[in-house]
Amino acid sequence: MTSGKIITGLTKEELEHDLLELGEPKYRASQVIEWVYNQRVTNFKDMSNLPDDLREKLSKIYRITDLTPVQDSRSNDTTKKYLYQLHDGRYIESVIIPATTNVNGNRSSRQTLCVSSQVGCAYGCKFCASGLDGFTRNLETSEITGQLLAVEEESKKKINNVVFMGMGEPLANLKNLMHSIKIINADWGLGIGARHITVSTSGLAPEIRKIADQPLQIRLAVSLHGASDDVREKIMPINKKYPINDLIESLQYYNSKKKHKVTFEYILIEGINDSEEQAKSLANIASSLRAKINLIPYNKVEGLHWERPSEKIQKNFLNILIKNKIQATLRKEKGHDIEAACGQLRLKKERSEMTKAVT
Ligand code: SAH
Ligand code: SF4
């Protein structure tokens, strides 16, 4: 169980406010922050420029982080997954996508971390492993920022790009999402530029407007996966609540407020959304919003029956977009592992423990 507040879930201003209330001067907050984000200490005892009694007092009230690494990291050619246990026994995963490939499968010098925003997901998209067991709970701010700190600690690599494409729907956890982004973006915190933070959503139109209204120039990706309501509805139940026209209106509003245009993610699923007609409708939507498109060949999920289309169909779909002057990419086979990791996280560990508990 968690004891007290978690430092990595607070902004500098919030910690200053707390410490003032404890009768401590404001500069103590800067010292603590410096230890946590620059020196990366995980224990108040090691904060050697704080008086002993203050270290003692802080350690009674606060904890620095509340993620416990589980020795279960799995690697493959392109990505590495990190598994963490939360204070209530749940598990989450984060995935590092190393320097040679980025989420588009292109060469890049970035270290991208794909983070989770919830335990499970309530939206039940038909192609996605994350939603298979339904929704458990939102992640706390510290459980989001903690993924970056913990992965940097374990991997010994500096993360310079963050994508909210792991488990969960980030815009359904908007308060903690934005709170964590403040800390991830802050110079005193993880120092990652807003342009290097991407939030992916299944299309929560009202929350897209809220993202447009907040000041940071973070990037937005939208999981479209169907270019007409009949097709999208079959794949993504959220489309019943926010049909494509509502989504487009919210994105027009977003465009009016932000420098960067949105990127659409479009998984190609054989016989479901890969027709030429869908490609043409997709091109129309993208061109009206000046959006880019990432085509992603569907990755088979255990327990789900769909397949990815042949390479010929994938390329034909891409060519229709390009002919219509859309900036589009098709994730290459090399990127296979990336999608397998990012956006397709399922709590195998939790499932196996639940099975054990039942038997
Ligand atoms: N809830 C958010 C973010 C998490 S999912 C959203 O839906 O956007 C992020 C992305 O993971 C999805 O858009 C999709 O592009 C990818 N994804 C999920 N399941 C996949 C699968 N079976 N094959 C390929 N990509 C998948
Ligand atoms: Fe949830 Fe996104 Fe998966 Fe849909 S694609 S079930 S919104 S995590």
Describe the protein's topology.
Layout: E1 5-6, H1 12-21, H2 27-38, H3 52-61, E2 62-63, E3 68-75, E4 80-85, E5 91-97, E6 112-114, E7 118-120, E8 135-138, H4 141-155, E9 161-164, H5 174-185, E10 197-201, H6 205-213, E11 219-223, H7 229-235, H8 238-241, H9 244-257, E12 263-268, H10 276-289, E13 292-297, H11 311-323, E14 328-330, H12 336-341, H13 348-358
Parallel strand pairs: 1-2, 6-9, 9-10, 10-11, 11-12, 12-13, 13-14
Antiparallel strand pairs: 3-4, 4-5, 5-6, 7-8
Helix pairs in contact: 1-2, 4-5, 6-9, 10-11
Bound molecules: S-adenosyl-L-homocysteine and iron/sulfur cluster.
Residues 121, 123-125, 128, 130-131, 168-169, 202, 223 line the site of iron/sulfur cluster (SF4).
What does this structure look like?
By secondary structure, the protein is α/β, with parallel strands linked by helices. It has two domains: 59 residues, DNA polymerase, domain 1, CATH 1.10.150.530; 291 residues, Aldolase class I (TIM Barrel), CATH 3.20.20. The chain is built from 13 helices and 14 strands. The strands form three sheets. A ten-stranded mixed beta sheet has the order 3-4-5-6-9-10-11-12-13-14. A two-stranded parallel sheet has the order 1-2. It has a two-stranded antiparallel ribbon with strand order 7-8. Helix 10 links the parallel strand 12 and strand 13. Helix 1 packs across helix 2 and helix 10 packs parallel to helix 11. The protein is elongated, with a radius of gyration of 21 Å. The protein starts with a strand and ends with a helix. The site of iron/sulfur cluster (SF4) has 11 residues, from loops.
